[in-house]
Amino acid sequence: MASQLPRLRRTALPLAGLAATTLLASSTVFAEEARHPTKKPIYDAPPPPQTPLESMPTYPTPTERLAQHIGKARRFINVHYRLACDKLDDAFSHYLSYEHSVTRTIAALAPPKNSPEKVLPGAIYVAVATMAGGIIARKRIWPIRILTPIAVGIGSAWYFIPQTTQNVGELLWEWEKKVPQVAETHQQIRQSIEEAVRKTYETTIETRKKVDEAVHNVRKSAEDLVKRG
């Protein structure tokens, strides 16, 4: 028995060293795992449960897409409807403004209410006189054939409806002012006509005076002859 103790000691000593080494390695592994908690495990983790594709909801749904398209169409129609209404309102406002302008212009051409001038019969007389001038000059050369009805019409207008003719002339003059070349030409023609009328009037007055003087001299001579005889 005493002889087997040294043998048991020799056998137990390596076993004790192996156990100590195993414990030390285990503690080292546990310490490493505690130090590195994110270390991948040896075995793969089980895959998560998968849901069938048919049961997964799609976003947006067809109904929601249809609602979005309907909303866009409604907004488009609403915006363009308002624009069309604004355009119609502007056009109607311009039309009313133009109508009022034409009405005021026509009303301004008429003579005053207290004037004895009547537009309707006077305009008929002017039209008849203009046609008569065209009939009179129909066999003349073309400048006379064109200018005679115009001159007769203007003259008859100044005679039958002078106030209306003056208003029409002022309106035409306001329109001609918008085109300086036309207004300048009109002014020159008007000055030439006025100068010709003035000279014609002065010549007529002088001729009448001379005729009156000649008649007076002839009458005086005749009276003297009668007295002598």
TrEMBL record:
Residues 1-31 form the signal peptide. Keywords: Membrane, Mitochondrion, Mitochondrion inner membrane, Signal. Its main location: mitochondrion. The keyword NAD does not apply. It is found in: Mitochondrion inner membrane. One of its GO terms (cellular component) is MICOS complex. Pfam families: ApoO (PF09769). GO terms for biological process: cristae formation. The keyword Membrane applies. InterPro entries: MIC26/MIC27, Mic26_fungi. Component of the MICOS complex, a large protein complex of the mitochondrial inner membrane that plays crucial roles in the maintenance of crista junctions, inner membrane architecture, and formation of contact sites to the outer membrane. Component of the mitochondrial contact site and cristae organizing system (MICOS) complex. This is MICOS complex subunit.
